[in-house]
Design a protein that fits this description.
alpha/beta; about 30% helix; globular
C-alpha cells in the first residue's frame, strides 16, 4: 500500500508544469532566467518570425533616438494581409525604459501564443479571430540604461535618450504637443501606427505599482478621476484584467510612491481614446520596476491568464460593416451610440467594432455624402459581439422627404438575417475582372466576415508553392453536417489558365450571399443545401498564366499555366483504382481528402476552352441516362447554349482532350476517379471557347449562365433520398451501401444513416446493405417534379456475441480513423500529468505503483538485468491479461535504447498512465485496451540513463551501456556475446507475435524505417514508409521535414527517411525486429535535443501523444484473416505471400495478420496438402478492413504421390528384414547360438535339482516353460 500512495499523487493530481518549447537551434528554449537586451530580444523575435511565419510577422514601426528598431510582432492568420472583419488589438510595453518587467512578459506572451497555436483551443481561437499586435519595447534606449534590481528606477532609464517622458509626449486633446519628432521619434512612430491601424482595444503595461487606470489621465492620482462617456465600459475592462491577476485582485499592496513620476498632459491612453478609435487601459504589474530575473517566471505566471482574457474583450459589443448600396465598404464612416458621447469610425474595408456592455442601444452609421442610418433597440449580450451591418443611401429627392419615424427599427428577425438591409433587387457588385490570388483571398474573407451566419471559409490544403486552397461553404449553420441537407460542390481553375471558372464561382459566392433573404429561390437553396465552392484548385498555375496574360507574353496560351508548378496536369493526376503507387500532387491530394470527408451528391468543375457538360466516358446505362438528364437541365436554363458554337462538345459523349493538355500524366481524370471511387457524380461544365476570354465579356458569361448554375444546385433535391436504419433500434446505420440495379456505382450513408442517389426519371430497384445485416430491396418511380423518399429498415444477422462485439469495435475504429475523430478523442482524455525525469529507482516505483493501482489491466515483469544488475522492466497493458485472443494485435513501444535519450522513457510512462487512467472512463480507450495487447519497455539501457545529464543535447555520457557498447549496434542473430540488455530484448523479439514496434529516440525530428544497414533492399518498403509517415503526419512539426537541428540540416520530405539514409549502421534493433521477429519497427526521433530540460517534457508530450495513439490504432487497420479447409477447420501453418514478397505464417488457429499500406494487394495462400489460392484485397486508409476468410481445397495430386511413397517404403522394409535374417543365420553368430543352447541344457539340470527345494535363487533368471526358445537374435524353425 505504501507504493500505491507514492503513485496516486502523480496520476490523479496535476503537478506544477513549466511550459516550454522543444530545443532547436532556431529558437532557444525559454528559461525565464534573464532579461533580453535589445540585441537578444531582436534575435529572438526574428527567429520566432521565421519559425512561425504562417501566423506571425515581425516589422518595425520606426526607430528610437539612438536608432534602435521599434519591433512589433503581429500574430494572426494571414499575418501579411489586412483582413476585413477582424478586430485589431495591441499591447505596448516598456514605455518607461526602467519598467522592464512588461517588456519581458510580452516576449513570453509572444512565445506562448505562437507555440500554443493549434494545441490550446482558446489560443487558437484568439489568433484565428483577432489581429494581435505586440510592441514589447517602446523605449529600447531607456531600457539599455536601466539597472536590474532597481525597484524605484531613475529618470535616466525612464526617459528616452533625449530625456523626454514618452507617455506624456502624446498630442493632447486640447493642446498640440510642443515636442518635435526629433525629440520623441518613438512617440511619432506609435502615433502614426495608432492612426493607421485603428485598434479596437489596447493594453499599456507599466511597473512601479500594482493596479489599473484608464482615461482620462490628468495626473492627479493613480485612479482615473477624469470621467469619460464610456466610464462603465472602462471600469469593466480594467476589472477583466485585475480579477484574473492573483495580486491585483487583492487590496492595493501599498507600493511606495514613484519619485520619478512626472505629471502632465498627453497620455497615450487618452490619445488612443480621442484620436485613435481605441479603448486603452493601463496595467501596472509590480511594485518593483525592474525586479530580479529570479522573479520572472512568477510574474509571467501571475499575468498570463489576465493577458489572454483581456484580448478576448475585443470581441464584445457591436460589429459589422458600413457599405454603400452597391456593396462597397465605406471607410471612416462614423458609428455613434445614443446616450454615449463618444464616436468611433470604420476602418479601410468599412468594418467597425464598437465595444459596449450588455444592454440595448440605438446605433447610427453616417458618412459625408450619404444619409445616416439608425437601427434602434440593438441587443448586446455578454461575451459576443452583435452583428449589425449598415447600408447608406446617397441622398435623392425621394429619400429626403422621408420622416425619421419611417426609418428601420431592428427586430429579432432582422438579427437572424445576415447582411445589411439592402434594396429589393439582387445586386452584383463584384467587379468582373481577373482577380489575383491575393485579391481572391481578400474577396472570400470579406464575404465570410460580412455573412458569417451563412458562410464558412476554410482552407482544405495548400498548393505546391504554399497557396491556400480555399473552400467557401454557403448554408445555414455552415461548417456543420445537418440532417436532411444534401451537399453539392463546385470547383474552378483545375487548369491554371482556365480563368473563367474561377471568376464565375467568385460571382456565384457573392450572388448567393447578397440575395439570401431577398430572393426566395436563393434563400430556399441556401436553407436546404450545403453548397461548397472552391474557386481555384490550381492557384500556382493561375498566377503564372495571369502574369503572362498581363505582360502579353508570346507563346501558346493553352500551355502557359495549364499545369501546376511541378508541370503536372492536375486533371490527369487522380489515382487509378488499379494502381496505388502513382504520385499524387499536393493540390490533388487536398481535393481527394476534401471530397472523401463529405457526401457530395453532385459535383461540377467549371472550365474554359470548350462549351458543354462533360461526364465520364465509361458508365453504366442507368448512370448515363442520369448524367444526360443533368446536362439537359443545365442546357435548358443557360441562355448561352441556345446559340451553338464551334467549340461545343457533343451532348452524348465525353469531350476529347487535346494532345498538349497533359505535360505529365500520372493518373486518371477527376470525373472518372469520382465516379469509380466516391459517392459523388461529377461533371465538367465548359462555359467559353477561349481559355482566357476578354475581361469585359465576363459579365455576359455570368448573366447567361448563372440561372443554370442555380438549377444545378436545385437538382440535388429532385432525386431519391432516404434513411437506412436498424430495424430493431431505429438508429441510422452509417456507411451502409445503396446500389441501383443496373449500375455499379455505390453510394453510402452518412453518419446518421441518410443517403442521396441521383437518378433520371424512370422506374428503379434499389438495394441497401450493411455488414452483419440482411440486405433489403425496394422499387421506386422517379419523377422530375419531386424528390422520392425510400427508407430501408435492415434486420441484423444473427451473430454470436463475440462477433457483434468485434463489429462494434470496428465501427469505433472507423470513427477514430475518420478525419478529426482521433483528435477529438485525444483532446477529451483525462490527463495524467506525471511528466518528470526519474531515476531508476523512481521509475521502478512508478511502474509498481501503476500495476497496484490498475491490477486488472497491467502486468509488470522483468525481461532481464543490465550490466550493472538493474532490472529491464516490461509493462503489459491489456483487457484480458490471462488469455490472449488469436486475432488480438500486439504492439511494442520501446525507449531508452540510448541512456541519454531521456525524454522517450518519460513520454512512454505518461502514455501508459493516460491509457490506464482513462480505462472505463473513456469508451474508445476502454475498447482499444480490451482489443489490444500493449507492451511498453520504458528503458532498455537503465545503466546509461543513470549516467546521463540533463541538458546535454548531443551524444555524451550515458549514450552506451556500462561497458561502453552502443546497444543499437549489438542486435545480431546468433550473437553469443550479446550484451545482457540486448539479450533481454532479443529474447522478447524471438517470442514473436508483435504486429508493430515503435521506438522513441532523440537528437533529431523525424521518423525512420528499416533497414539501418547499408545496401539492404526491403521488399515491403511501401508499407514501412507508410508506417513512418503515419507518425510524422500526426505530429504537428515532424511532417514539415524542417529539421534545422544543425546548420547543415536539409529539408526531409514528409519528415521520414530510410534508416540507412539517416544513420547507416549494422546490428540495429530495427533490422533485427524485422528479420527475426517479422515485426516492422519505426524509430521516432522526438526532438533535436537528446536530453532536453525537464520543463520541455510537457510540450513534447503534446506533440507526440496524437502520433502514439495513431500507431496504436494502426494495428487494428491491418490485413488479417483465417485460412480454413472445406470442412471449416483452421489450416495451421498456412503461408500467405503478400504482393509476391512479404511472407506471413498463419498460427495454429489458422489466423494471420500483417500491416500493409493502403491500396490493392495480391495474396497467394499455400499450405501443405492443399491447392494454392490467389485472392485480391483492398485496404483503406480510413476504415477497418474486416478479417477475410480464405478457403483452401485439398490437393488430390499429393495423395497419389503419397500412396506411391508408402508402397515403395513397405517393399524396402521387407527387403531389409530379409537381409537381416540371412545375416543372423551366418557363421558369425554361431558362438552366440551355442551359448544360448548351453544355457538351455543348464536350465534342465537345475530344474531336476530344484525338485527337492521349490525355492531356487536362480529360478527367475531363466525363461519359464511358456517362453519360446526363439530369441531376439535369430529365428529358428522347429
Amino acid at each position: 500500500m505504501n507504493i500505491l500512495w507514492l503513485i496516486l499523487p502523480h496520476i490523479l493530481i496535476v503537478p506544477h508544469q513549466i511550459l516550454g518549447l522543444r530545443h532547436t537551434n532556431e529558437v532557444n528554449e525559454e528559461t525565464y532566467q534573464g532579461y533580453y537586451n535589445y540585441a537578444a530580444m531582436t534575435d529572438r523575435l526574428q527567429r520566432f518570425s521565421l519559425k512561425y511565419a504562417h501566423i506571425c510577422r515581425l516589422a518595425s514601426i520606426g526607430k528610437s533616438v539612438e536608432g534602435r528598431e521599434l519591433w512589433v510582432m503581429r500574430i494572426t492568420t494571414n499575418p501579411s494581409t489586412d483582413v476585413p472583419g477582424k478586430p485589431r488589438f495591441k499591447y505596448v510595453g516598456n514605455i518607461h525604459g526602467d519598467e522592464a518587467l512588461s517588456r519581458q512578459v510580452l516576449v513570453y506572451l509572444i512565445e506562448y501564443l505562437l507555440t500554443q497555436y493549434g494545441r490550446d483551443v482558446r489560443v487558437t481561437e484568439l489568433v484565428n479571430r483577432t489581429d494581435i499586435y505586440i510592441l514589447a519595447s517602446m523605449n529600447p534606449d531607456g531600457f539599455e540604461r536601466a539597472l536590474e534590481g532597481d525597484c524605484t528606477g531613475s529618470a535616466e532609464g525612464r526617459q528616452n535618450a533625449k530625456h523626454y517622458e514618452l507617455d506624456n509626449s502624446f498630442p493632447d486633446q486640447d493642446e498640440p504637443s510642443s515636442k518635435t519628432s526629433d525629440d520623441t521619434p518613438e512617440v511619432t512612430a506609435v502615433v502614426r501606427w495608432i492612426l493607421e491601424k485603428k485598434f479596437v482595444l489596447s493594453g499599456s503595461l507599466h511597473g512601479g505599482s500594482v493596479g489599473a487606470s484608464f482615461p482620462f489621465d490628468d495626473g492627479s492620482s493613480s485612479a482615473s478621476p477624469g470621467l469619460t462617456a464610456d466610464e462603465d465600459l472602462f471600469h469593466y475592462l480594467a476589472l477583466t484584467y485585475t480579477e484574473n491577476h492573483p495580486i491585483m485582485s487583492l487590496d492595493n499592496p501599498d507600493c511606495p510612491a514613484d519619485p520619478n513620476r512626472s505629471f502632465g498632459h498627453g497620455g497615450m491612453q487618452d490619445f488612443n481614446y480621442h484620436k485613435g478609435n481605441c479603448f486603452e487601459v493601463t496595467f501596472k504589474f509590480s511594485c518593483c520596476k525592474y525586479p530580479p530575473a529570479s522573479q520572472l517566471y512568477t510574474e509571467w505566471t501571475n499575468n498570463k491568464e489576465a493577458l489572454l482574457t483581456y484580448i478576448q474583450k475585443a470581441h464584445i459589443g457591436v460589429r459589422g460593416f458600413v457599405m454603400t448600396r452597391s456593396g462597397f465598404g465605406l471607410p471612416d464612416a462614423t458609428i455613434s451610440v445614443s446616450g454615449i458621447d463618444h464616436n468611433i469610425t470604420s476602418w479601410m474595408f468599412g468594418d467597425y467594432y464598437r465595444l459596449l456592455l450588455p444592454g440595448r442601444y440605438d446605433v447610427t452609421a453616417s458618412s459625408p455624402g450619404y444619409l445616416s442610418n439608425t437601427v434602434k433597440n440593438v441587443p448586446v449580450i455578454e461575451g459576443k459581439a452583435t452583428l449589425l451591418n449598415f447600408t447608406l443611401e446617397e441622398p435623392v429627392e425621394e429619400t429626403l422627404l422621408l420622416d425619421h419615424s419611417e426609418r428601420h427599427i431592428l427586430t429579432k428577425e432582422d438579427l437572424g438575417t445576415p447582411g445589411p438591409p439592402t434594396s429589393k433587387y439582387p445586386i452584383q457588385s463584384l467587379e468582373f475582372q481577373y482577380h489575383s490570388y491575393d485579391e481572391m483571398e481578400m474577396v472570400l474573407q470579406l464575404f465570410s466576415a460580412i455573412y458569417p451566419s451563412i458562410t464558412y471559409l476554410n482552407s482544405v490544403g495548400r498548393s505546391v508553392q504554399g497557396r491556400n486552397l480555399y473552400v467557401m461553404e454557403i448554408s445555414t449553420n455552415p461548417g456543420v453536417g445537418q440532417q436532411g441537407k444534401p451537399e453539392v460542390m463546385f470547383l474552378g481553375n483545375l487548369h491554371g489558365n482556365e480563368f473563367i471558372g474561377r471568376e464565375i464561382l467568385l460571382n456565384l459566392v457573392e450572388y448567393l450571399c447578397r440575395n439570401y433573404g431577398k430572393d426566395p429561390f436563393v434563400t430556399r437553396l441556401v436553407n436546404t443545401t450545403r453548397i461548397h465552392v472552391m474557386p481555384s484548385m490550381n492557384p500556382d498555375g493561375y498566377e503564372i498564366a495571369l502574369k503572362a496574360h498581363k505582360e502579353r507574353v508570346l507563346g501558346d496560351q493553352s500551355i502557359i499555366g495549364h499545369s501546376n508548378s511541378h508541370r503536372v496536369d492536375l486533371n490527369a493526376n487522380f489515382p487509378e483504382q488499379s494502381q496505388s503507387k502513382n504520385t499524387v500532387e499536393a493540390e490533388t491530394q487536398a481535393v481527394i481528402n476534401w471530397i472523401k470527408a463529405h457526401s457530395f451528391v453532385l459535383s461540377a468543375s467549371i472550365c474554359g476552352g470548350f462549351r458543354g457538360v462533360v461526364y465520364p466516358s465509361s458508365l453504366d446505362s442507368t448512370d448515363e441516362i442520369m448524367f444526360k438528364s443533368v446536362a439537359e437541365a443545365f442546357y435548358s436554363q443557360s441562355q448561352a447554349f441556345q446559340e451553338p458554337q464551334a467549340c461545343d462538345v457533343p451532348r452524348t459523349r465525353e469531350k476529347k482532350d487535346t494532345k498538349h493538355r497533359r505535360p505529365v500524366v500520372t493518373g486518371t481524370d477527376m470525373l472518372t476517379w469520382a465516379y469509380q471511387g466516391t459517392d459523388t457524380l461529377a461533371v465538367s461544365i465548359g462555359l467559353s471557347c477561349e481559355l482566357l476570354p476578354p475581361e469585359d465579356s465576363l459579365s455576359e458569361y455570368w448573366e447567361k449562365n448563372h440561372k443554370a448554375l442555380l438549377q444545378f444546385i436545385q437538382q440535388v433535391h429532385m432525386f431519391v433520398r432516404g434513411m437506412v436504419t436498424d430495424g430493431h433500434s431505429g438508429k441510422g446505420i452509417a456507411k451502409a451501401t445503396v446500389v441501383v440495379e443496373g449500375s455499379g456505382h455505390q453510394v453510402h450513408t452518412s453518419s446518421t444513416g441518410q443517403y442521396w442517389r441521383p437518378l433520371a426519371p424512370g422506374s428503379y430497384r434499389l438495394t441497401a446493405s450493411a455488414p452483419d445485416y440482411t440486405s433489403m430491396s425496394a422499387s421506386v418511380r422517379v419523377l422530375n417534379s419531386r424528390v422520392e423518399q425510400v427508407d430501408f429498415k435492415l434486420t441484423r444477422d444473427a451473430l454470436p456475441p463475440f462477433r457483434v462485439e468485434q463489429k462494434d469495435f470496428e465501427r469505433l475504429v472507423d470513427q477514430l480513423l475518420f478525419p478529426g475523430g482521433l483528435d477529438q478523442m485525444v483532446r477529451g482524455l483525462l490527463p495524467a500529468q506525471t511528466l518528470e525525469y526519474r531515476t531508476y529507482r523512481e521509475r521502478s516505483e512508478f511502474l509498481r505503483g501503476l500495476t497496484l493501482t490498475f491490477p486488472h489491466i497491467t502486468r509488470l515483469y522483468s525481461l532481464g538485468q543490465s550490466t550493472e544488475f538493474r532490472t529491464i522492466w516490461a509493462l503489459e497493458i491489456a483487457g484480458n491479461l490471462k488469455m490472449s485472443q488469436p486475432a488480438e494485435p500486439k504492439i511494442r513501444f520501446v525507449a531508452g535504447v540510448h541512456g541519454d535519450a531521456a525524454a522517450g522513457p518519460e513520454l512512454l510512462l505518461e502514455f501508459a498512465s493516460v491509457l490506464c487512467l482513462n480505462y472505463h472512463r473513456n469508451l474508445a480507450i476502454t475498447k482499444l485496451i480490451d482489443q489490444s495487447r500493449i507492451l511498453i519497455l520504458p528503458c532498455v539501457n537503465p545503466d546509461g540513463r543513470e549516467q546521463a545529464h540533463e541538458g546535454h543535447c548531443s551524444p555524451s555520457v550515458g549514450h552506451t551501456n556500462a561497458r561502453g557498447i552502443d546497444l543499437d549496434t549489438d542486435f545480431f542473430y546468433g550473437n553469443k556475446s550479446a550484451q545482457p540488455e540486448t539479450r533481454s530484448v532479443m529474447d522478447l523479439i524471438y517470442g514473436g507475435g508483435f504486429s508493430l514496434s515503435v521506438v522513441l529516440e532523440g537528437g533529431s525530428l523525424l521518423a525512420t524505417y528499416p533497414y539501418d544497414r547499408p545496401n539492404q533492399h526491403e521488399q515491403n518498403e511501401e508499407t514501412l514508409r507508410y508506417l513512418a509517415s503515419l507518425y510524422a503526419r500526426s505530429h504537428p512539426f515532424m511532417h514539415l521535414g524542417n529539421l534545422k537541428c544543425t546548420k547543415e540540416s536539409e529539408k526531409i520530405p514528409g519528415g521520414i527517411l530510410k534508416g540507412a539514409d539517416f544513420s547507416s549502421h549494422t546490428g540495429s534493433m530495427k533490422d533485427f525486429s524485422l528479420d527475426v521477429g517479422v515485426c516492422p519497427e519505426i524509430t521516432v526521433y522526438t526532438g533535436c535535443c537528446l536530453f532536453p530540460p525537464e520543463h520541455q517534457l510537457f510540450s513534447m508530450w503534446m506533440e507526440n501523444r496524437m502520433p502514439l495513439f495513431r500507431m496504436l490504432l494502426e494495428v487494428h487497420r491491418s490485413l488479417s484473416g483465417f485460412v480454413r479447409d472445406s470442412k471449416g477447420q483452421p489450416v495451421s501453418g498456412a503461408v500467405v505471400v503478400v504482393n509476391g514478397s512479404v511472407t506471413v505464417h498463419a498460427d495454429s488457429h489458422g489466423h494471420f495478420t500483417t500491416l500493409v499500406a493502403p491500396g490493392t494487394h495480391q495474396l497467394q495462400v499455400q499450405a501443405h496438402g492443399y491447392q494454392q489460392v490467389l485472392q485480391q484485397v483492398n485496404i483503406s486508409s480510413d476504415r477497418v478492413t474486416s478479417p477475410i476468410v480464405i478457403d483452401v481445397m485439398a490437393d488430390r495430386a499429393p495423395l497419389g504421390r503419397a500412396v506411391f511413397f508408402i508402397a515403395t517404403a513397405s517393399l524396402m522394409s521387407i527387403l531389409i528384414c530379409a537381409l537381416l535374417i540371412w545375416h543372423l543365420r551366418s557363421a558369425k553368430f554361431s558362438r552366440i547360438r551355442d551359448g544360448i543352447r548351453w544355457l538351455r541344457r543348464k536350465k534342465e539340470g537345475l530344474r531336476m535339482e530344484a525338485m527337492a527345494s521349490e525355492k531356487s535363487p536362480l529360478r527367475d533368471e531363466f525363461l519359464d516353460e511358456s517362453e519360446s526358445e526363439d530369441d531376439p537374435y535369430f529365428v529358428e524353425a522347429r
